[in-house]
Specification:
The protein has about 575 residues and is α/β, with parallel strands linked by helices. It is about 45% helix and about 15% strand. The chain contains 20 helices and 16 strands. Helix 6 links the parallel strand 4 and strand 5.
């Protein structure tokens, strides 16, 4: 969605009143000058006094060069006013032009010399939301847009006008010393081109630049994420891609928690399996499974859509964990029609139809759903997101207070959060790695709730999160070494099963990576493990590693295909 040319309303600037005042003085000077010169020339010989001649002499008052005034002498009062007012307007115009040129040059120099800043490219609501939130977090932001609009000034005092696909435009935005770049135009190809152009202007040595490119198609987004999974690429560039619906679905699950898996699972209904609805189903399942420290009951999930059965089958093929985590049921019809025939029972309802007016109408019809205690109905709206104010009064109470808490959820606004966008593929895979570790410990009866590594991801210390990220980030490198790559689980394809020799090789590589990481953090070898003193018995060469200490490496490699499958990927041969 492109931001309107007018943008959001901004407060009037005082400079506009000053300009208006001098424009009025200029008009008065022209009128008084004409009348005064007409009176003066009627008494002086040697000067033409036709209308065009008087206009010509009148305009010369603005440059202090009108010949009829060279002889001096008493002047008509109107001409006295004009001969001082006109030069004043000229002086103001010169001063204003100098100010604009100087300010533009200062802004250009400040922009190019910026350090540690974020660059936001695009003239969309997503770009506007990202820029505002970055500034609210105290970061310096440079906005790159194809055309200069008043709206751009509300986003950042630093901006560059031009095509962000041009490396020179990005250079003017200070990409050499930036720390992050967000490509948020309406076109996926343009965003990808911007991301790649950023790498062409990066120095060989410099700060890491994290680039996030918005992709409108979820399957293409997964493909590009898999392509660029791994460590930092050339020119200090770390590239990731994001899809608005997927980011917003994660935000919605965080804002509307389902409760603890140890409790009776809530009954959830999702209506409208478009890109957002499908992403929400996956995130709800991930949330429910990720919060468990014991084997949770399946999450009852009713999916309503004219193509629900077909779409759920596709989701199940792409994300195999859905069937293990959720008790899925479907209704192949529109929710509004279904509500007219029967009263459904649900604790949580998410209405995700693309037709926003129909979605809101369906939410209001859903008052027929009865259950105690009251439930929550969330309606996905973007174009009608401003209706949120109609459903929340000043005290925060909801407009619909009879039996339901009705909430309006805007995808673009929710997804335009740099913190959520920054949860790239590595971060999400790291979560799955930890979830897999917990399930393995649970299956072996080794879960210890007082042990930090056996806590849900949100409760892990940063050191353990970083270890999971490093492990997940290395997936791409390992697969490339055995001639494989990641592919989205879309359509038919031959999935590669790791051979015994490949598992042995990758287990050794994983151990070497782990040893290098631990040694860089100050760990040392010891016969007994002591986390507080950073001592570990596995800090030896692979050939010297006892069999029982090799086993965790084999387990991690054997778990890798399942971890990638949970994230929507499969391993294929090149």
């Amino acid at each position: 969605m492109t931001v309107p040319a007018s943008g959001p309303p901004s407060p009037p600037r005082p400079i506009n009143l000053l300009r208006l005042g001098f424009a009025l003085i200029g008009v008065i000077a022209l009128i008084c000058g004409y009348l005064g010169l007409d009176e003066l020339l009627s008494t002086r010989a040697g000067f033409a006094n036709g209308p065009l001649d008087i206009i010509y002499y009148d305009l010369q008052l603005f440059v202090l060069g009108s010949p009829p005034l060279d002889e001096g002498g008493p002047m008509p009062p109107l001409l006295d006013i004009a001969r001082f007012a006109a030069p004043a307007v000229t002086i103001y115009a010169l001063a204003e032009a100098s100010r604009v040129i100087f300010a533009s040059e200062v802004r250009r120099l400040r922009t190019r010399s910026s350090r540690g800043h974020a660059i936001v490219c695009g003239q969309t609501m997503t770009a506007a939301s990202v820029a505002r939130r970055l500034r609210a977090a105290g970061e310096r932001v440079v906005v790159v847009q194809p055309a200069e609009l008043d709206f751009i000034r509300t986003l950042s005092p630093l901006w560059v006008i031009g095509d962000a696909r041009d490396p020179d435009v990005l250079r003017a935005a200070g990409v050499r010393r930036a720390t992050s770049l967000y490509a948020c135009t309406d076109d996926s190809a343009t965003n990808t081109a911007i991301a790649l152009a950023a790498g062409r202007r990066r120095p060989t040595a410099g700060p890491l630049l994290r680039v996030y490119a918005q992709i409108s198609d979820p399957d293409l987004c997964l493909t590009l994420q898999a392509r660029y999974l791994g460590p930092v690429h050339s020119h200090g560039l770390q590239l990731d891609f994001f899809h608005l619906d997927q980011v917003a679905a994660r935000q919605l699950c965080s804002d509307s928690p389902l409760g603890e898996p140890t409790q009776v699972p809530p009954r959830v209904l999702v209506a409208g399996l478009n890109d957002f609805g499908s992403a929400l189903v996956v995130e709800l399942a991930r949330y429910w499974r990720g919060r468990a420290v014991a084997e949770p009951a399946k999450l009852p999930l009713l999916l309503v859509d004219p193509r629900a059965t077909e779409l759920v089958q596709e989701l199940g093929e792409r994300y195999p964990f859905l069937a293990d985590t959720c008790d899925l049921s479907t209704r192949d019809e529109d929710l509004a029609a279904l509500l007219h025939r029967e009263a459904l029972t649900a604790d949580r309802m998410f209405i995700c139809d693309d037709d926003e007016e129909h979605a809101l109408k369906t939410a209001l019809i859903a008052e027929r759903i009865r259950r105690d205690p009251p439930r929550t109905i969330v309606v996905r709206l973007d174009r009608l997101a401003d209706l949120r104010e109609a459903f929340d009064d000043e005290t925060g109470e909801h407009f619909d207070q009879l039996t339901t808490r009705l909430r309006i959820f805007g995808v673009t606004q929710a997804a335009g959060d740099p913190a959520l966008i920054g949860q790239d593929l590595v971060e999400r895979l790291a979560r799955v790695v930890h979830d897999s570790y917990l399930r393995t410990a649970l299956a072996g009866g080794r879960v210890e709730t007082d042990r930090m590594s056996h806590r849900p991801w949100e409760e892990l210390p940063e050191s353990l999160r970083a270890a999971n990220r490093s492990h997940a980030e290395d997936f791409g490198r390992k697969l490339r070494l055995i001639g494989c790559l990641l592919s989205p689980r879309v359509g038919p394809a031959q999935e590669h099963e790791l051979t015994e020799s490949e598992i042995d090789l990758l287990a050794r590589l994983e151990h070497e990576r782990w040893v290098t990481e631990r040694l860089s953090q100050g760990w040392q070898f010891a016969e007994r493990q002591d986390d507080a003193r950073k001592l570990h018995p596995a800090l030896v060469e692979w050939a010297d590693l006892p069999v029982h200490l090799r086993e965790p490496n084999f387990q991690e490699i054997c778990a890798m295909p399942g971890i990638l499958a949970d994230a929507g990927f499969r391993i294929v041969r090149r």
